[in-house]
Design goal:
19% strand; alpha+beta; binds zinc ion; ten-stranded antiparallel β-sheet; 649 residues
């Protein structure tokens, strides 16, 4: 919808400072208007975000803020010291959504009322001196900053800052930003290196404040917030939290070789490293972030882009330790990975970072929310076995309305509500499209404005038509299109083109308004294998098409379980679009067989000398027609087994 002419240019969660040394800047005024992501954003806007105030009230988060404000009585509700962060993440999501609405329309007014009411609760809960954390303020724990390992005060402060920046960027108002600044100033007065005159030399057990402080610097221009972020990043790995890997304190980030410890903590910290490198030109930090990213992508990322192999402590595993049914892949991990990779794409200009953003967005991230926007997954396994008994709760493989630890749902809400800001960039010499979605994107060439619009039915169809809406007259500029890493063939205006080595197809010319380019990516379904060191999936294949990872679900395969199915790789894969299924998906059809082991063959192990690789005397039946659906759409019908990786015949 049109905005009032007086409104400032719309910016998203990352706005580089004027002196940032990054290769790219996010495109200004992006808008997603139609297609796949517009539909997901619509559900987020109509169902996801509006349910927030009710859920935060039911779970006690708002009550806890009232307790801190002294306007309510009773017991603290919720068992974690980071209850406030759910409120902040919802506020951030609501503000990004508000930025997409007309402020005077009925939807905009209703949402703005909710935002201002809850922002008012936050402001009322803040102490005179700027400190703000409901858990400690009501007397849980030993007092402010007394338990940095588990207290989550700076983590919560980070989410407050991000919410406040979103509020400022969406509404132009300072109210929440003032609250966030007062808290940031309190932290700044308390924390610093030995000799700085500050009483505490310490870091928070859960990184998050670092990237938020960089954004606060970007929003306010106050250098000390950037310096504070740098201090928090560089004090990790020096034993301030007992050297714990879980808390990102085992090794200084500049010396780290791979991701480790708690996945979300690690990736929020690395997002801050990318932010700092961009703002300060710190080459060593940039190099470390690039090195760690490459190691993570190569050895610790699931096919879905999901990260974090261990349920235990929500941690990364060893290299190539990528289990399927016990994959943790927290939804927040996917959000954090996208946030970090986007910052790396801006910092370096390299397409591979946006390749991982795409994979994670369409798979590991999007599976975290149900198609109806009402139920969530905290963990995103790649397999649910036949006969799986589920304990329920936060770590369930069944979708849940809300969690005791409700970090994931508002994280999904805030990313979906700001998604257009992760799709395109400008380098001052043209425009780069990192992701393909129907919408408009604004860039710059030699100080003059460029606007392009994209029309596409991606990811169901590989055709992307891009129209130049605004262009400087008579001056060439470059339209850069990312050729996805999975893509083996494509055409530009019907001419076959060779895959660019760096993933960027660059079209440099003098453009005229209305001129159109049609990129067509080949979307043949394909079978994918993993590196043989990934033991959990050795010998198995996965079905993919375009950016989507596919899976089998029990409901589509009556007559037996999924664990008996063997894929026949000699048979072709075919596609069928099913507008009636799961909100409209393209399915991939394959052929398989079922293995049935005689009941008297009760022992599952046999000597190698006994014969073929199949350890038991299975009777193979078939063929069976297999229907694979996009992974993001699983667990939206009845409970049952699911699998991404399939054994082959
Ligand atoms: Zn989470």
């Amino acid at each position: 919808m049109p905005r009032t002419p007086a409104a400032p240019p719309r910016t998203g969660p990352v706005r580089l400072g004027p002196h940032a040394r990054a290769a790219l800047r996010p495109a200004a005024e992006p808008a997603v208007a139609a297609g796949f992501w517009a539909a997901r954003q619509e559900v987020n806007a109509r169902v996801g975000i509006p349910q927030g105030p009710f859920l935060l009230e039911s779970a006690g988060n708002l009550h806890d803020l009232r307790l801190a404000a002294g306007t309510a009585a009773g017991e603290y509700r919720g068992e974690y010291p980071f209850m406030d962060s759910d409120v902040y993440k919802w506020l951030e999501a609501a503000c990004w959504q508000l930025a997409r609405l007309h402020p005077d329309g009925p939807e905009g007014r209703r949402l703005a009322d909710d935002v201002e009411r809850i922002a008012g609760l936050v402001a009322a809960a803040q102490r005179e001196d700027g400190y703000l954390n409901s858990w400690f303020q009501v007397g849980k724990g030993r007092g402010p900053y007394s338990d940095l390992r588990w207290g989550h005060e700076l983590y919560c402060a980070g989410h407050l800052i991000q919410a406040a920046v979103a509020h400022r960027r969406a509404t132009g108002r300072d109210r929440l930003l003032e609250v966030a600044r007062r808290f940031a100033d309190h932290i700044d007065a308390q924390f610093g290196p030995p000799g700085s005159g500050r009483p505490i030399d310490g870091i928070d057990g859960h990184p998050q404040v670092e990237t938020a402080l960089v954004e606060l610097y970007r929003e306010t221009g106050e250098r000390r917030y950037l310096d504070l972020a740098g201090y928090f990043v560089d004090r990790r790995g020096h034993g301030l939290l007992g050297g714990e890997v879980y808390c990102q304190d085992r090794v200084p980030l500049r010396q780290a070789l791979n991701v480790e410890g708690h996945a979300v903590r690690q990736l929020y910290l690395l997002a801050a490293a990318a932010d700092l490198a961009a703002e300060t030109g710190d080459g060593e930090l940039a190099e470390a972030a690039e090195r760690i990213w490459s190691a993570m992508a190569a050895t610790k990322t699931h096919l879905t882009g999901g990260v974090g192999a261990h349920h235990d402590r929500e941690e990364f595993g060893d290299p190539y330790e990528l289990p399927t049914e016990r994959a943790y892949c927290e939804t927040c991990g996917a959000v954090a990975s996208i946030q970090w990779s986007w910052r790396m794409a801006l910092l370096t200009g390299e397409a591979k970072y946006s390749d991982l953003v795409e994979r994670t967005l369409f798979n590991g991230f999007l599976a975290g929310v149900s198609l109806d926007g009402e139920r969530w997954l905290y963990v995103n396994p790649l397999q649910v076995r036949d006969g799986h008994t589920d304990p329920g709760g936060d770590k369930s493989a069944r979708r849940t309305r809300w969690f005791r630890c409700a970090c994931c749902p508002p994280n999904v809400m805030r990313l979906l509500a700001s998604l257009e800001h992760y799709l395109a960039s400008t380098d001052g010499q043209g425009l780069q499209l990192h992701q393909y979605a129907g919408g408009t994107f604004r860039g710059e060439a030699a100080g003059e404005s460029i606007v392009v619009s994209a029309h596409t039915d991606y990811p169901w169809d590989g055709r992307i038509a891009i129209t130049v809406d605004e262009t400087p007259a008579g001056r060439p500029w470059t339209l850069s299109l990312r050729i996805p890493q999975w893509c083996t063939g494509f055409t530009v205006d019907d001419e076959a083109s060779a895959r660019p080595r760096d993933g960027w197809l660059r079209l440099t010319r003098v453009w005229t308004p209305g001129e159109r380019v049609v990129l067509e990516l080949e979307m043949e379904p394909r079978l994918t294998r993993a590196d043989p060191r990934a033991d959990a999936v050795r010998g198995a294949v996965a079905i993919e098409r375009g950016p989507l990872v596919y899976c089998l679900e029990q409901i589509d395969h009556p007559g037996g379980g999924l664990d008996d199915i063997v894929l026949d790789t000699a048979q072709p894969l075919t596609v069928k679009h099913r507008p009636d299924l799961l909100g409209g998906v393209t399915t991939v059809l394959a052929t398989g067989h079922r293995r049935a082991v005689p009941a008297e063959d009760w022992w599952p192990y046999r000597p190698v000398s006994a014969g073929p690789s199949d350890t038991r005397r299975a009777v193979v039946s078939g063929p069976v027609e297999l229907t694979a659906i996009p992974y993001y759409a699983w667990a939206n019908r009845e409970d049952g087994s699911m699998r991404v990786w399939l054994p082959t015949s």
